[in-house]
């Protein structure tokens, strides 16, 4: 029997309580429907880089060319910590041969679209895109659109190792 396709995913979409407020953003469609056909590799960049749960909410500041990840009230800059951790985690993801990644939208770490100045990408999502240029990526919001979903599914099968 064929091995299941492997996809990276923002862990909070699988119902893990990793958000800054200790909650999750379980997406039933992804977990229960798509989940029957894929093997997930959950990643929570903010928790895994050591920021803890709960933690102060963060946002992106600076310019699109030089984005910084900073806590909202205390203004602590976690950009370097996140980039250092990302480099290690992306090396691990490379070995896992993922065929795509589904990100949580609207997050300063995981968001794919319009997170910063209506066009920026979250800091971890950007590192994934830069490292794996051909990897199909989407967010849970856009995957609610049928055309977007079909295109993403077609692309992940094309990206599957030995496809
Ligand atoms: S959006 Fe990303 S960083 Fe935020 S809780 Fe979900 S997985 Fe973690």
Overview of this protein structure:
With 163 residues, the chain is an alpha/beta fold. It has five helices and six strands, in the order E-H-E-H-E-E-H-E-H-E-H. The model has no long low-confidence stretch (mean pLDDT 94). The protein is globular and about 50 Å long. The protein has one domain. It has a four-stranded parallel beta sheet with strand order 2-1-5-6, covered by helices on one side. It has a two-stranded antiparallel sheet with strand order 3-4. Strand 5, helix 4 (123-131) and strand 6 (137-139) form a beta-alpha-beta unit.
Explain the layout of strands and helices:
Blueprint: E1 5-10, H1 28-33, E2 38-43, H2 45-51, E3 58-63, E4 66-71, H3 79-96, E5 101-103, H4 123-131, E6 137-139, H5 146-159
Parallel strand pairs: 1-2, 1-5, 5-6
Antiparallel strand pairs: 3-4
Helix pairs in contact: 2-3, 3-4
This protein binds iron/sulfur cluster.
Iron/sulfur cluster is lined by residues 10-12, 18-19, 44-47, 104, 107, 109-110.
Would you kindly provide a brief summary of this structure?
With 163 residues, the protein is an alpha/beta fold.
Low-confidence spans: pLDDT under 50, at least 5 residues? none
Ends distance? 14 Å
Compute the gyration radius: what is it? 15 Å
> How many β-strands, per DSSP?
6
What spatial order of strands do you see in the largest sheet?
2-1-5-6
Share of β-strand residues: 15-25%
Question: Structural class, judged by helices and strands?
Answer: alpha/beta
Question: Which ligands appear in the coordinates?
Answer: iron/sulfur cluster
Largest sheet: 4 strands, parallel
Integer tally of domains: 1
- What is the H-and-E element order? EHEHEEHEHEH
**Count of DSSP helices?**
5
């Amino acid at each position: 029997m064929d091995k299941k396709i492997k996809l990276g995913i923002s862990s909070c979409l699988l119902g893990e309580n990793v958000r800054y407020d200790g909650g999750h953003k379980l997406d039933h469609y992804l977990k229960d429907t798509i989940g029957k056909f894929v093997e997930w590799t959950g990643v929570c960049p903010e928790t895994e880089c050591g920021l803890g749960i709960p933690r102060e909410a963060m946002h992106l500041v600076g310019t699109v060319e030089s984005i910084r990840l900073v806590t909202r009230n205390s203004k602590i800059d976690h950009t370097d910590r996140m980039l250092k951790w990302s480099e290690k985690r992306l090396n691990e993801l490379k070995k896992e041969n993922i065929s795509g990644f589904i990100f949580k939208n609207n997050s300063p770490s995981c968001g794919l679209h319009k997170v910063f100045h209506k066009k920026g990408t979250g800091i971890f999502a950007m590192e994934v895109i830069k490292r794996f240029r051909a990897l199909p990526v989407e967010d849970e919001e856009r995957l609610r659109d049928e055309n977007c979903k079909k295109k993403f599914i077609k692309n992940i099968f094309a990206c599957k190792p030995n496809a």
